[in-house]
Amino acid sequence: MKSKQLNYSQLISLVLAESRGAWKRMVFFILCIAIGVGAVMTVKSFSNMVQATIQEQAKGLLAADIAIKGSWEQDEEDLAYQKKILPKGTEFLFLKELHGMAQFKNPGSPENSGSLITELKAIPLSGPQYPFYGEFKNDPDRPLQELLKRNGAVVESSFLIKTGLNMGDEFSLGKTKLKITGIVVSEPDRISRAFSIGPRLFISRTSLDKADLIQPGSRIKHRTLIKISDSIELETALVLLERGLPDKTISIRTYKDMQSSLSSSIERMGQYLGILGIIALLMGGIGVAMIVRTFMAQKLDTVAIMNCLGASSHTLLKVYLLQAMLLGLAGSLLGITLGFSLTYLLPSKMEGLINYQLKPTFYWLPALQSLLMGVAITLLFCLWPLLRAVKTRPLRLFRRNFEEEELASGNRKDRWFAGLTLSLGLAAMICWQAESLKRGLVFLLVLGISIALFSLASIFLLKILKALPQSGSIARRYGMSNLKRPNNQAASIITCLGMGIMLILTVRLVQMDMLAMLNKNTEMNPPNYFFIDIQRDQKDTFMQVLDQIAPESERSLTPLVRSHLHSIDEKLIANWKYKDKKREEWFINREFALTYIEGPPPKDNEIIEGKWWNEEQAKNAEVSLEQDAAKRLGARIGSKLTIDIQGIPVSAKVTSIRSVNWRNMRTNFYMIFSPGALAGTPLTYVATVHVPDEKELQLQHAVVKALPNITALSTRDIVNTVESTVSKLTILVDFMSGFAIAAGLFILSGSIASTKYRRLRESAVLKILGAKRKTVASILGFEYATLGVIAGLVGILLAQGLSWAVMKYMIKSAWHLQPGILIWAFCFGVLLTVATGILSSLDVINNKPLKTIREIEV
């Protein structure tokens, strides 16, 4: 038999012949690849699905061609300029967005009457219809402007649920009454409801004016939507607007900018989830390598015979490599089908995160990429065990009892070739998936370190087990000895299972630490309410209401001044030289909320440079900067800082730099001025109040009734909103991490299947010697429980270290030991491993000795 004599049909015949009787191993081979490919296909299809939705809704994402957003209403001069430079046919729509407190009386349940924070969107009744692009859906299906006439309000369904009101009922907003005339079904330019504090209400600009909610210093977003005519290019219009509008604090965006920004966010999320898919695929590759190694070890006699008949190593490699690649192809196709099927589950998990209907669609490009990755993984991980197997010499036939199931070690050249091929192949594939050489290599390095740590830890723990004195229980002793058998693959199983446990547990631990950070802490005694937009002449009234409802409450009333940076040490912000414009521009041109304090620094503010002013120095113009703000501005002690307050420059000398605990749920500031610096400036007040839980709603209703323009923000509502969003994101990560766990379990099942005949023979001998099924099951149970215990311990330890690093260096918050979740993860890992192992070994437990011996003899 010579390589040149074998044609394609003969190769196929040999492949089919070598596949007989090995269907179980082939099933596990296919499933290992299918899980990894399914993970990659799911992520890529999901990313494409979201991207396609964004492209379809491109202009609807902004509801216009161009949107100008700012904290101040545009003046007549700016509006005149826009109308002058943009061609005839250009349409403008002016919107206002703010928070407001709705007061309601529930007709069916008077005790449930009260107030509720809402997100208001005010639409003009005359002029162009909102939106310019996209579809605003409401019930009843009538024009929005028509429903908003005569003090009408179109509300989200959650507003009706929380207030108990119905269509046609009235509620108060500020100094006016509104009637519910419709329900919002969908809103085109509201991409996500993830961080919404209250339900959305649409009202007219006229109704907003009647409500008298907007006072000097009120926090409000002004949006100008522009629909340009066909006679001017979008880019040209953008350049003209940017050139003629000098206010750098406003944001000018086109629908293409919006699309690009969203696409980048989705792409980053896809890359992160794709990493989990790649991990599952690599684990599948490890399973494939184990199965091929065991399969080829049992084929060594066949290889030796074929060598005797003249088959070369090259011919044998072609036969078994073709067999492996066909199985890899089958696994990849199954994985593509699985991945596409799972995309039907993801839209429900994204509910609330993306405010668009996602429709699963089959995309050929992700399918082709997933197929190529599955086939490539098969090739990379099969190559080395096959190269070792085909080197088997004919002499094995005469000494096989001494070489049972042992592959040739291969020469140094072969080992270098296989290792280099695997490394380069993995690097190329991961960089392709990461779409960046740098990100790909970093991920490969981190993955390599993680696998090395898992392997070393598992080998170390297995060696400790071997060194321990033997147990008196035969089941335990025999189960432990199974871990020492040749080709036991214990280290690989522990690595894969531990990696899956580590991924899921790390995400869960970080999530719990973040929620603990938000909810903490009785020691800090944080306020449970923020009251904003309190005017100078309302200060006394507010304090009176507070004293009536909760005289014992802890409270603080802080003056608030809104401003922009003008210069630092005579360097004008208008001519600022950026080192990294993309990262710095938002901070330099943002609106700053300032305050002044006469007494000592606020709680959780620590002076790290300079000195805080005393009573005499407070009359001077001095300012204290937060350390990050000082670094960004290049300010130091003695620098001169000038701010712009409604067109009036105000200067002060930097006399101290502070570190601030931004997570204390209190009012914190980048800049705190001395009273002498801001004397006579226009200001409002923000109050923080801590009252007993049972008085929260009573206080909110009383304040809103007395001062309707004030907005009450509950810290509990804020924390609940963040918790909900974090939980939804965690579900996505858990969903993808589950692929890694599944890959580890299939590797365990494949390992058991690959040693089936050895286990059957051993169980038959044990049963002949008098062992019961219970004894055999106990032996296997001890073996699998040990694997689960080691995988759980290693996964938990590394998850602890990884979650600590994330909290300390990325989130920069306290890390907490979570014994409850650790015990749960450990028990879950052990039980899952034992259950999978026992279910995969039922024939070993149940088969009668005579049947087993006959099957082996055959």
Quick overview:
The chain is of the alpha+beta class. Helix content is 53%, strand content 16%.
Account of the protein in words:
The protein has 858 residues and is α+β, with helices and mostly antiparallel strands. The protein has 26 helices and 21 strands. It has a 6-stranded mixed β-barrel. Strands 12-14-19-16-18-17 form a 6-stranded mixed barrel. Strand 12 (554-568) and strand 13 (571-572) form a beta hairpin. It is elongated and about 100 Å long.
Element layout with pairings:
Layout: H1 8-19, H2 23-56, E1 66-70, H3 76-85, E2 91-104, E3 114-123, E4 137-139, H4 144-148, E5 152-156, H5 157-163, E6 170-173, E7 176-186, E8 200-204, H6 205-211, E9 221-227, H7 234-244, E10 251-254, H8 255-297, H9 300-308, H10 313-342, H11 346-349, H12 364-389, H13 412-434, H14 437-467, H15 474-482, H16 490-519, E11 529-534, H17 539-549, E12 554-568, E13 571-572, H18 581-588, E14 592-596, E15 605-610, E16 622-626, H19 627-633, E17 640-645, E18 648-660, E19 671-673, E20 684-690, H20 696-706, E21 711-714, H21 715-754, H22 756-768, H23 773-811, H24 819-840, H25 842-846, H26 849-857
Parallel strand pairs: 3-8, 5-7, 14-19, 16-18
Antiparallel strand pairs: 1-9, 1-10, 2-3, 2-6, 2-9, 4-7, 5-8, 6-7, 11-20, 11-21, 12-13, 12-14, 12-17, 12-20, 15-18, 16-19, 17-18
